Fold:
Amino acid sequence: MSQPIDTLDRYRNPIPTFAIRIARLVVGVLFLLSGLMKGIDPLGTAYKIEEYGSAFGIPVDETLSLIGSIALSTTEFTIGACLLTGTFLFFTAWITLMLMTLFSLFAAYISIANPITDCGCFGDVIHVPNSATLAKNLILLFLSVLIFLGRDRPRVLRVKNSDVINLVLFILFFLSFADTNYRKLPALDFRPYKVGKSLAKLKGYEADSTLKQAEYDYKFVYKKGEVEMTFNIDEIEHLDSTWTYVRDASKLISAGDIAPATDFMVINRDGVEITPDVLSPDNKVMLLITPDIRKMQLKETSLLNSLNRIAREQGGSLMLLMSNDMESGEIKNIISNLNPEYSIAYLDETTAKTVIRSNPGLVVLDGSIIRRKVSFSDLYDLIEDEEFSEHPFDPLPKSYAWKEFLLTWWRSIITFVIFLILLFVDIKKRDKEKKAILQQKQ
Structure:
């Protein structure tokens, strides 16, 4: 009996089914994770795209880089989810192979030319050198070929409703996820400037037991008459006055860790570094950080003055940190229009973008401890928060963290729950279809 024309068959190839499934699992998981890690920090990925553009001499507009960031991370996440769930597998196999071919060619180029040191494949979560990126991509390309050869080949193009629903939910979930991370700051902060960290330790002003110290083999050369000899520290204590010092012959055994916030330098308007004063243990300060005040999304004088008032009422102050040249006429006019009742200082642009992914973003310091970080979209609600007005420099209670989590992520949570329910229903439906086929064969 001939099979119906709309049944599916597979390409005849010698690749075992389990190998194709393992390939789908590995490639799917890596695409999923790559998309998620970029989506956790959309602005960080946008900065990486701008860095690529700068390395190749191509200026990239900030808006275009942000759109590219969300488009790239959404594509990677969706492909990973489709591979893992078998959604539109025929088309997903084609797209995966094409993307991995392009990614591998690009990785080969940056591995040779080395325009940047980190590809940014996994955001700030994992930093991968260019040579390792090339090796990873070549392995994934091989696995993508296996997936391509083992894809389903429909004789008649037929779209399942479940596939359409899954695809829409994948995209909706991820767009909601990325949008929330953009407006509300990254859900997970993988940079050094986390809430609860001491900036003084990160800067190297205070001892940090988590940092590995450099190890040296201390040796010193002394001379007596025409004779030169090398001594260690203990032996030097027993030398008499007839020995004279010649040179330091110490050798580095292992390098220590560099303090992660060495670039955090606050310069006042007179050109004097005031970082030690800002991070003083007795100082309480709100740092409103803007990489470019011309593009700052909040310029209302009343809001900034309200933050300054709240800080002063609780024994602190507000400081506006910008990365612009404060001597330029345009910046002077902006500062004049702000009519600031608070101090203004300079912070390097790259450092400003690293400290907080928002323009502007608020970082609250108690001494040098980071108590909270707030994006521009939450500043209006913040100044209306009675608890913040009364205790702006206190640690956040755990109940507040849970409340913020639910208020921030409710859209993504609902979308994800709906997807899980529909996926469960789809799996049950497929199980019934398989059982029905087996019964027919029997």
